[in-house]
Amino acid sequence: MNTWIAIGLTVLGCYAVKLAGLLVPAGVLERAFVRRLATLLPVALLAALTAQQTFADGHALVLDARVAGLGAAAVALALRAPFLLVVAAAVVVTAGVRAVGG
Amino acid sequence: MTAGDADKPDRAVVRDALGVGIAVGLSGFAFGVTSAGSGLGLLQTCVLSLLVFTGASQFALVGALAAGGSPFTAAAGAFFLGVRNAFYGLRLSQLLALPRALRPLAAQWVIDETTAVTLAQPTRRARRIGFTVTGLTLYTLWNLTTLLGVLGAKAIGDTRAWGLDAAGPAVFLALLMPMLKTAAERAVAGLAVLLGLGLLPVLPAGVPVLAAALAAPVVLAAQDRRARVRRGRPGARAAADRGAPREPRAGSGPTAPETPEPETPEEDQ
């Protein structure tokens, strides 16, 4: 049930902001501070999410095979690999490190 | 594709749009697998792709739920990630000049990739074709591959053993890296990582990510303070702020950040 509540809220919220962009008159959201905040907000969220999903195990911080996987993804990104290859690199290296006992 | 050639053939627009739509649409597979691995059911996962349809928010939501976050903090994180779509919509509504009746439908396709393709087109006709073809291709494939991902995850059982728990953070990293162009963006990312990890042991699941979002206004405020001090030298900060121009690039999840900033940010000073 909790999952469905979360899904329902996300559906409504994400659709509402998409529609708002198309419906509100320009100028309302065009203030410089608001626009810069909108550019930086995803940066903050994505950085925190990347770090947490790499190092978190519940409420504890751990170093496990995911770190190697994310390292591989970072290398793939630096080499300008396509998106799917970046994700595949992370998955394969994480699985590999776990297989050898990481 | 060169902006400015006013008579760009429709075929070229369709080809650009298909390239982005197909490459990114296929990555719904990673979402399906991650969502199933996070404990969501087939119906729940498919509803997310059908009705939320903005990849970073979807990944964030299932990650937060898997970590044991409350539905409200989980949804809040997903919502804040989706807020940028409002700014894409602003720009697109000017460029596409959609009839009012169509807007509620078109809204669902207002995401990074459709914006990137649309902004790259030289004429209104090309923009409308680019938006529609990218949206349709991406929406169809993203939902199909989400379904396949869930089925695939069920078939292979323990997704962790296959390293699939690394798919989510890899997606976030791939979205994040192209956004780190200016000093402000890197400062926000660094501060957010510190907040997100530092608060993890002490706050309820899902809340540290929301707290990490505060890195954005904090850095902005610090930047404005510095700008006021330096007010005598206009231009210096504006140039640093803008960073490199953003080129739309195929292949990054329906949340790719490579979308152009709608306009050059004006300084509020």
Automatic annotation (TrEMBL), chain A:
Residue stretches spanning the membrane:
6-25, 37-55, 67-97
Which UniProt key words apply to this protein? Membrane, Transmembrane, Transmembrane helix
- Pfam families, per this entry? AzlD
Q: What is this protein called?
A: Branched-chain amino acid transporter AzlD
Q: Which organism is it from?
A: Streptomyces yokosukanensis
